[in-house]
Design brief:
The protein is mostly helical. It has one domain (about 5-85). The chain contains two helices and no strands. Helix 1 packs antiparallel against helix 2 (about 50-85). The protein starts with a helix and ends with a helix.
């Protein structure tokens, strides 16, 4: 396998990692920001209050975007198998 092919696969892997982790992280960030704003407005300073809504929001995000994430992972796995098959 050439260096170009390895570099291409590495680039695809890093972009896929970024894509798959961005959505849950952004949902968690926005949920935390909204809850912090709500806590500051209501003067409710309970640090454990943001844990359950964040978990629920990230879980819902993963439930809704799970099929897209699985499809992207399956496509990348097929690409890897294609390149491994070309080695032999």
């Amino acid at each position: 396998m050439s260096a170009d092919a390895l570099l291409y696969l590495l680039q695809k892997a890093l972009l896929l990692t970024l894509l798959l982790s961005a959505f849950p992280l952004l949902v968690s960030l926005l949920t935390g920001l909204l809850l912090a704003l709500l806590q500051s407005v209501t003067s409710l300073q309970e640090s454990t209050l943001s844990f359950a809504p964040k978990m629920l929001a990230v879980g819902l995000c993963l439930l809704l975007l799970g099929p897209m994430m699985a499809r992207e992972l399956a496509d990348f796995t097929r690409l890897l198998f294609f390149y491994v098959q070309r080695i032999s």
